[in-house]
Amino acid sequence: MEQKSAKISFVDTHAHLDFDQFDRDRDAVIKNAQMANISTIINIGINIETSKKSINLAEEHDFIYATAGIHPHDSAEMKSDQWSALIQLYEHPKIVAIGEIGLDYYRDFSPHDVQQQVLLKQLDLAVEHGLPVIIHTRNAWQDILPIMTKQYQNQLAGVFHCFSGSEKEAKAVVDAGYFISFTGNVTFKNSKSLVIAAKCIPLDRLLLETDCPFMAPEPFRKKRRSEPAHIPYIARRIAEAKNIDVAEVAQQTNLNAEKLFGVRVRN
Fold it and tell me: What structural domains and CATH numbers belong to the chain?
């Protein structure tokens, strides 16, 4: 009797299902993810409010986990009396990382020095609490790399999410022991440099993410929002870049997610 092939499951390591873009059909989007064999979702906080919402989602769904952090865009809004409220969130059993945190010099919604201060504070907290970090960086490689690869190297585990850097920057991140994750951006027609970077990154350093509702992959780009059910499109592009089977990408990136976040990936 012919055996059926095993079901391939995937992990979306970076989603924003709490955002208002999903207010009308959040339950349907989560069901879509399950139908697409997305076995685990990590929902990301970008400030105290969204971190709490992420925790609420994680409490409602056993396969969803949460993170808590202050995005660089929100750094200027972070007041001294709010830190204790953020730290309390780290104690929740479904919080698996601090993030997303980092530096963003493209939008410049917060002054650079304030972004750096808030980032360093959260990196110190990550060391203290033994949690991995989710790093956002845009037009700030010159500052983020020395911090992560020298100042905090060997003190932290983490991932550079929605990677948009060069092959050189990818190598620096991997050499320092961090993971790299790609969104739908790696499927774009102008993504040649990202594909080159993906080829050079060892498979055991890669993660998959949607960053939904942003970065919808081809063929959905500019047509609809992204959602966790789109992860297989990203996995297939990585598999093509590396000339390997998508099942190998799924299996290894699932193991990587388990290793970094301490979650149990359900197959």
Answer: 10-261 (3.20.20.140)
